[in-house]
Amino acid sequence: MKAATVNSLRGEYDPQRHAGLYGARRVKAMSAVLLSLMLSILDYAIANVALPSIAQDLHAPSSRAIWVVNAYQLANLSCLLPLAAMGARFGFARMSQFGILLFLIASVACALSHTLLELTLARALQGVGGACIMSVNIALVRFIYPHEELGRGIALNGLFIGIGVALGPSLGSLVLSVADWPWIFWINLPLAVAAMILAHLALPETPRNNVAIDTIGSLLTVASFSLCGVGLDSLMHADMIPGIGLTGGGIISWVLLLRYQRGRREPTVPVDLLARRPFLLACMVGFMGFVSSNLYIVAMPFTLASAFHRGPSMIGLLIAPWAVGVATMSFVVGRFADRFPAAVLSSIGMGITAFGFMLLFMLNMDASNLDIAWRTLLAGMGFGLFQPPNNRAIMVAAPAGREGGASGMLSVARLAGQTLGALLVAGLFTVFPHPAFICLGCAMVVSIVGCALSASRKYLVD
Fold first, then answer.
1. Phi and psi of 366, rounded to 5°?
2. 123 with 72: CB under 8 angstroms?
3. Rounded to 10 degrees, what is the CA torsion of 203, 204, 208, 214?
4. Coil, helix or strand for 366?
5. Phi, psi of 439 (to 5 degrees)
6. Dihedral angle of Cα 260, 407, 293, 49, to the nearest 10 degrees
7. For residue range 312-365, what is the model confidence (pLDDT) as tens digits?
8. Residue 370: C-alpha distances to residues 301, 319, 321, 361 (Å)
9. How far apart are CA 415 and CA 53, in angstroms?
10. 188: helix, strand or coil
11. Closest Cα partner for 139 from 180, 92, 184?
12. Would you say the C-alpha torsion 326, 327, 333, 337 has a positive or negative sign?
């Protein structure tokens, strides 16, 4: 029997064959990945629920308290690609462990904050820790699962993202019902310690490249995302002069970055991967999917409150079917993601999501809770069907050795889509007096465009 086969039977990782892990070793490694993922997803979702309590306790207006959320997301998005490149240099497992440690330290800083500025800075640090985890998350899955089972691993990853999103608001409400807001950060400590121990013991060693860290490229990447993010946020809130200045600075940073990275072996922004049509299309489809989902997720609470006159507790219950649908279908689609192309599965999923949004858009004002819930569930199930096959398409389109860049771009597509979706909601709420159903209509249109773009892969790539 060949040595590689023996290694596989023993549950050991074979770097030459990229055969993945087997048996108990795979279970332990994937548990470490999923626990660290849950840590970052849960905390992001929980913080949203605590914003009113934080604003009241720290004597801050709601418009400024929102930066407790924005600081995390912007730091996360800005640092994903530089940290993915560093993960490829120092090892994906090490990057994940460093992220967990940084997340733990930042959680303590958040819990001990006494001013909004302190909390915002601590949340930004927490976002960097989350970026360390998210930038290499899917790259680790690629080394834990063999190629022919990669779809199952990515689907399991999507399932836990759905669970984290679903549990976050409920867990946050439960914590706030018995304790003050700092405890939403204190509860991270046991989770982070457990994730740290499991990651140290179970995550596989992965190949490392010998490319030097591109400091200038990394700084330009952070500046490009940060300036554009803050600038667009200012524009959407009608702060025109700072918005134009910051957005303009971000565009200049992007031009400088792309010119600087032209011809580099492994650029921080993986323009070489984006030159591959399958990779580019999968990233664009993922981006469109998350723009549409956040147009729904951010605007729907306001729609339920203003148009359907539901109270806060009922709003949470009526939004929950979205996360249930995403989690359920993410689990089911894992059995098919390795057998059917993303051009089929993801297109069907986005089509179902668009149909669900259309049904919600067409609801009468006297619609019952059941009418709202099953339409929301349908849209969520479509999104759960769309996401894992598309994520798999991103990873398999990247050549061996570029797992870090592919994993980073996957997360960038998700976070950039979520950020733009939220900014569009802010802009629509600024321009229109009653924008609730306009946001749902926009979510439907973006989903249809994403569906068409996904289906085009069958003809443009194959």
1. -95, 20
2. yes
3. -10
4. coil
5. -65, -40
6. -100
7. 667 777 888 888 888 888 878 877 777 888 889 999 999 999 999 999 999 988
8. 16, 12, 11, 15
9. 26
10. helix
11. 92
12. positive
CA-to-CA distance for 211 and 154, rounded, in angstroms?
A: 27
- Compute the distance between CA of residue 57 and CA of residue 71 in angstroms, rounded to an integer: 19
Identity of the highest mean pLDDT range in 76-85, 135-144, 244-253, 431-440: 244-253
Q: Give how far the C-alpha of residue 126 lies from the chain's centroid of Cα atoms, to the nearest Å.
A: 15
Q: DSSP label at 268? A: S
Taking CA 156 as the corner, what is the angle to CA 347 and CA 21, rounded to the nearest 5 degrees?
120
Cα 274 to Cα 283: distance, rounded to the nearest angstrom: 8
What integer pLDDT is reported at residue 312 of this predicted model? 64
Quote the tokens at residue 167. Answer: 């549990």
- Rounded distance between C-alpha atoms, residue 226 and residue 321, angstroms: 33
pTM > 0.90: yes or no: no
What element of type H or E holds 185? helix 183-186
Both structure tokens of 316: 């949470």
- For residue 411, count other CB atoms closer than 10 A to its CB: 26
User: Which 3 state secondary structure label does DSSP give 307?
Assistant: coil
Tokens of 356: 């669900």
Q: Which of 35, 50, 52, 47 is nearest to 76 (CA)?
A: 47
Burial bucket for residue 268 (CB in 10 Å: 0-12, 13-18, 19+) = buried
Residues 6+ apart with CB under 8 A from 284: 413, 453
For the cut 80, the answer to whether the pLDDT of residue 165 exceeds it is: no
Residues in the chain, overall count: 462
What percent of the chain stands above pLDDT 70? Answer: 92
3-state helix, strand and coil shares in percent for the chain, rounded to the nearest 5:
80, 0, 20
Residue from 230, 179, 234, 159 nearest 46 by CA: 179
